[in-house]
Amino acid sequence: MTDVLSQGEIDALLSALSTGEMDAEELKKEDDERKIRVYDFKRALRFSKDQIRSLTRIHENFARLLTTHFSAQLRTFVQISVASVDQLPYDEFIRSVPQQTILNVFEPYPLEGRFVMEVNPNIAYAMLDRLLGGQGEAFNKVDNLTEIESRIMSQLFQRTLETFTEAWSSIAEFDVEMDDMEVNPQFLQLVSPNETVVVISLSTTIGETSGMINLCLPHVVIEPILPKLSVHLWMQTKKKEREPEEIKALEKNVKTAPLDIKVELGKSEITIEEFLQMSKDDMIELDQLIEDPLLVRVGDHPKYYAQPGKSKNQLAVQITDVIEEVDDDE
Predict the structure, then answer these.
(1) Euclidean distance between the first and final Cα of the chain, in Å?
(2) Which of 6, 60, 163, 170 has the most beta carbons within 10 angstroms of its beta carbon?
(3) Quick one: which H or E segment has residue 13?
(4) What is the DSSP string of 252-273?
(5) What interhelical angle do 49-74 and 121-131 show, nearest 10?
(6) Exposed, middle or buried by CB within 10 Å (0-12, 13-18, 19+), for 127?
(7) pLDDT of 210-239, one tens digit each?
């Protein structure tokens, strides 16, 4: 907000300019210098703060889902949380990861392009050792993975894509498929080197081993769904309209649901002593006259009046009146 000068400050400023204590050109030069801001075109900030906040919330949910998933799979202590969410050039991301690591490349249909999940070797091998019956020890042997170990690891991370899809379900529906698993980042050309990507770093602990899992999402790939990352759009609850077939199926299921119906012939009160002394052929007098209608309850709610009778040699009641429901507020 622009500061508003008081009348006294305006008079003092005019006086200083007229006496030569201040130079108008110098003030203008200082004002122009304040407007200049250094901008690095190699690190173009293409994600707004609003979108970064939304991405953080989505992947905090992803981290929780991933913690539950790996805990069940590995049957050991697992803790995963979002450490940071940054946007940077793709080339800088590639240079920041180890020369030998686990790179899981997957395609998020219907988006065009690929995402990559980089898993620190210590974390990846702790998971592998645990799956093969070990204690979850970290041993780095990226360069000589056997075919069986590669297969097991690929299947493990393939299943994590289901949790990724679930975490994004409030924004977009993805059909995610694993495309490839690489160990050398130099062989992975996801997008052009200067393309802006957002990197979500997940701090991960598996048993006694700690490391990072990094998700790399290129701007050019998720650009079609960026408007949905706006907080006010994300927080809106969209009312889903049911199809006519769904409504009919729902009505059918409701109509076939069983109901507990009771018919009260009457009531009576007796003492415990009278109850204990009852024997066969004793009679209990009810407070209901034979010509009075019977009360029919649906569940515990009185619903109808009826009269007793028989239908096909079975005891039955005939509905004679409907009890009008009264609102509780009245």
Answers:
(1) 54
(2) 163
(3) helix 7-19
(4) HHHHTS---EEEE-------HH
(5) 30
(6) buried
(7) 889 999 999 888 888 888 877 545 454 455
CB atoms within 10 A of CB 142: 15
CA-to-CA dists, residue 215 to 16, 59, 102, 326, angstroms: 59, 9, 12, 59
- The C-alpha atoms of residue 164 and residue 106 are separated, in whole angstroms, by 11
Give the residues across from 79 on adjacent strands: 205
Q: Which residue has the tokens 């006086």?
A: 15
Judged against a pLDDT cut of 60, whether residue 30 lies above it is answered with no
Candidates 3.30.70.1350, 3.40.50.300, 3.40.1550.10, 3.90.550.10; CATH matching 43-234: 3.40.1550.10
Q: Which residues pair with 178 in a beta bridge?
A: 106
Give the integer Cα–Cα distance in Å for 324 and 113: 63
What phi and psi values does residue 27 have, to the nearest 5 degrees? -65, -40
Q: Is the pLDDT of residue 208 over 80?
A: yes
- Residues of the chain above pLDDT 70, percent: 81
Residue ranges of alpha helices (H) inside the chain are 7-19, 24-35, 49-74, 90-96, 121-131, 147-167, 219-222, 231-234, 244-255, 272-276
> Which class in CATH covers the domain with range 261-322?
mainly beta
Each residue's pLDDT tens digit, 172-194: 888 888 888 888 887 788 888 88
pLDDT at 330 over 60: no
Domain boundary assignment for the chain: 43-234, 261-322
Three-state DSSP at 195 gives coil
Average pLDDT along the chain = 80
Q: According to the model, what pLDDT value does residue 112 have?
A: 87
User: Max alpha carbon distance in the chain (Å)?
Assistant: 123
Q: How far apart are CA 151 and CA 131, in angstroms?
A: 12
Whole-model pTM: value is: 0.57
| Tokens linked to 176 | 């995610």
**Residue 172 neighbours by CB under 8 Å, 6+ apart:** 225, 228
